[in-house]
Amino acid sequence: MNKSVQVCDWGIIAYKDAWEAQTELFEKVIAQKVQNRKLSPDNKEKTSNYLIFCEHPHVYTLGKSGKTSHLLLSKEQLETKKISYYPSNRGGDITYHGFGQLVCYPILDLDNFFTDIHRYLRFLEEAIIRTLAEYNLQAGRIEKLTGVWLDSEIQENPRKICAMGVKASRWVTMHGLALNINTDLSYFEHIIPCGIQDKAVTSMAKELNQEIAIHEVKSKLQVHLAELFEMDLVLEG
Q1: Distances in whole angstroms, Cα of residue 19 to Cα of each of 3, 15, 69, 96, 179
Q2: Residue 64 CA: distances (Å) to CA of 33, 67, 72, 92, 156
Q3: In sequence order, which ranges of the chain are alpha helices (DSSP H)?
Q4: Does domain 4-234 have CATH number 3.30.930.10?
């Protein structure tokens, strides 16, 4: 097992470029796993793991199980508003990515950690829940709805603060989560977020009534991911 994880900060990057770069790393890890099956134990190479952080310019992405009708803008309206749109190969429905939102793409060989996709998703959620707790935001889960929510237990006004959608092949993961920090929530008005019509979307800035330092949130999230997955993080530079 290789629990070493390279932390990468891609800054602000177009969704398409990030998707292509993710795919390249994802396929590289899978290729190494396939190659290892042909080698003796002494000659096998450890597979790599990556934890990628970034922000995207305005974009709507649709998961494999999503409905195109959940996008409420026409192609012409998207162009006018300068919003990109991509059907994606991740799980889930439609979501928005934009400035002020922290996106995390774990490319992990789960054979290095545990081979359980359900547990993997719950660990991603738990890392967000623990990070939000450091800002006195009590978050949790809603049964049968992936992601992280505020007011998840009392259900009076449940608000989604973190969306998730992943892809896995041969126990290697890609895509991941998007945490609304200083996100302009008006962009969610043009979609049915994650295909859910009766629940709201929120951000840390809205809940705390102040702008939040994204780099600070990212650092806290890294710590919680490392604790949950028992990762050895290798930082850039």
Answers
A1: 24, 6, 23, 15, 18
A2: 25, 9, 18, 6, 30
A3: 15-36, 75-81, 117-133, 204-208, 214-229
A4: yes
Structure tokens at 40: 């003796």
Q: Would residue 23 be called left, alpha or beta, if left means φ above 0 and alpha means ψ between -120 and 50 degrees?
A: alpha
Per-residue pLDDT of the chain (237 residues; tens, 9 = 90+): 899 999 999 999 999 999 999 999 999 999 999 998 888 877 789 999 999 999 999 999 999 989 999 999 999 999 999 999 999 999 999 999 999 999 999 999 999 999 999 999 999 999 999 999 999 999 999 988 889 999 887 777 899 999 999 999 999 999 999 999 999 999 999 999 888 877 899 999 999 999 999 999 999 999 999 999 999 999 976
| Beta-carbon contacts of residue 17 (< 8 Å; ≥ 6 apart) | none
The model's pTM: 0.95
Q: Is 194 known to be catalytic?
A: yes
Tell which residue, 130, 124, 131, has the closest CA to residue 229: 124
- Tokens 């896995």 sit at which residue? 168
Provide DSSP, 138-155. -EEEETTEEEEEESTTT-
- Choose among 94, 93, 84: nearest CA to 57: 84
Beta-bridge partner residues of 5: 233
Order of all β-strands in the sheet with 94-97:
84-87, 59-62, 94-97
What residues contact 145, with CB distance under 8 A and at least 6 apart? 194, 196
Q: State the catalytic residue, choosing from 54, 104, 162, 194.
A: 194
